# Entry
Amino acid sequence: MTKQLRQSAAEEQGTQATVLVEEQGRTLAAVRTAVPLTHAQQAMIVRRLEAHVGQPLRAQFEVDPSLLGGVQAQVGDQLIDDTVRWRLSALREALIKSGEST
Amino acid sequence: MQALGISAGHLISQLANLVILLLALRVFLYRPVLNMLDERAAKIRQGLEDAEAASQTAAQAQAEYEKCIEQAQREAQGILDQAREEARQLREKALADAQREAQELLEKSRQAAEMDRRKALRAERTQLADLVVAAASKVIDQALDDQGHKRLVEQFLAENTAPK
# Structure
């Protein structure tokens, strides 16, 4: 579920996707969360993202309270959005589309 | 004859005179009169023949006239029937066109009404969804504590473990 929705979100925000950036041989990953992460959490997220894309990453962490919760990671032109704000946005779209078939 | 006072000579002369008179009458009166009567009869006969011929001509003319009148009536009736048929077809076509246009107008109106209804429903759903999301955002923002944020991060890590 999450993967498919994330891809949809990535397509919707594709124009805003950061162009793949390579710095010192590593791809830049922009990670945003609603609250600051501990060093341990940051390290785990980097490892998960590296495993996901199959290459070493250099992560840049930002705090954005408007995300409400969860993690949003952008690696090159790929956006992985697992935030509460995105879930609420998906809920909003589902509510709007729920009555269109009638 | 003497006793009767009739003279033979006188009788003979009278008979001769009578014969001469008859001959003269025959030559100068009967023949011209007979000729005149024959001519008159011929004229009358010719007049009767001419009258008969005129009568036949008049009858033929009458028949021709009646035939022409009948033909004209048939043609006029044909033209009238054709005009009526064309008028009927025009009326039916106009009626069909009007019905089709009315149907199209009705269909367009129905589609427009349906579109407006869908737009209104979508606007209502959008407004409701915005209210729900705004309310949920407030509740979640106030309800999420450090443990909740931690669980969300762990959930993110758990769902993104599959290597690409």
